[in-house]
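Bumping with the actual sequence this time:
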Amino acid sequence: MDKLFVFNGSSTLFDSDKSGLRHLSKVFGHEGFEADHIKRYDSEKNKMPWGLSEIAKSFNDVDCNKVEIESKKFVLDSLREDAKEFVSFLKNEGFYVAFVSSDLIEILDEVKEVLGLDFVSGNVLERVDGKFTGELEKKVDRYDRLDKIAEIVKENSLGIDDVFIVGSSVTAVPSKKIGKFVSFNSNNISIDVISDFVVSGGLFEIKKCLSIHIYKFENVEEIKKKIILGGVSNFHVIADFDGTLTKGFVGGEKSPSIIAELRNGDYLDEDYQKRAHALFDKYHPYEVDDSITVLEKKAKMEEWWKTHFDLLIEKGLCLEDVKKVSHSGRVKLREGIEEFLGFLRDNNIPLIIMSASGIGDVIPMYLKEKGLMSKNVHVISNFYEWDEEGLAIGVKEPVVHSGNKDETTLESLPICEDLKIRKNVLLLGNGINDLDMIKGFDYDNLLSVGFLDEKREDRLEVFKAGYNVVVTDNGSLDFVNDFLSGFENSY
């Protein structure tokens, strides 16, 4: 077993607002017992486990076969419509799937059979001569569920990054300490604020959380807390653009960077396309090869960029071409970008976009078209010099490529002095060299998030060693937005 996914609590898999245990108690218990139990349980649940022994008494002298039949009916009527498909998806992704709950084992066993789960754990009632005695043979409260999950984790030597736990109730919260915790349709702010992810809707909404890998989980939580406590006035963001703020893939195909859109589109002549593709085929393997030395990569990238700039100028790149690329609609922003940029704008948090794009002029133009360019956004990239007719005649220094972001200075930015007092930083990138964007800056706390959409298996360990958090599989900005929401919750 390499990965564990745990449904912790019945409300994660059932549409019903009642647990199966409550439902069965109402069916087989004494009149008025269930209502009295719920009232007492709701007053006690936030303090400690309560009510399992009490509710077990309502099953005294109840026929075991009848409970099994009623359990099957409850599961059939109450399972979420997307539960079977989602569990199938998890299994295909290589997860060992468990369901722990304080419901009766009769219910959990039926769920296990219907969904094809690997493991279940629930309360077991004592049986004598085919009837329940009203006593618990095996108790499973919130802490017993925690112990069972911890046992699976220990037996398989799993780390926190290998374990996802989904819960909707306060009774699931103790398990947060041994895995990444997803608050699922909890409608409880006290649960949401301490969760790693907050999800509402159907089970497949959880899928986006699975692409997030956190290295040294406890360290990340500490960094997040320190940045949030520092407040928005001490915070700024530095980000790459292509493949970071934009999607890595669209419709199953690699999403073009700005320069790739120019290279692949019908903007310049056929000879340009042929020569530009030849340059890409020659140099791109070096760009995504994290095993070569930094010096070697820098030399190759500088050679590529300058050769391509000369080619663009030779082929008559003009401002009209830049506008066409911006209007093309083939460069797609990553999901969650509107919320991300909106929060930064509304709180006047500087965003420094440091891009090695071959046509940096497109970035502010593109963001303006989307209504997302605001005064707190500052772009450092490769900007062209244009003659009176709008033809490119040169590239302004310094040239920025994917291997030299550590050499790019912020000193020329008007915001520079403000950044010096904003010493808590969020860094977003899609290459290991993007971590160099922060070099030379005297920061107090840094949270780095890497987006890995290409050659995942080859590069994941390298990314996890460099970034605090790695988002794979064309993931969204949800982790970043959830983190930023902590500023609001701290007010």
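The tokens above came from a reply further down the thread. The chain is about 40% helix and 20% strand.
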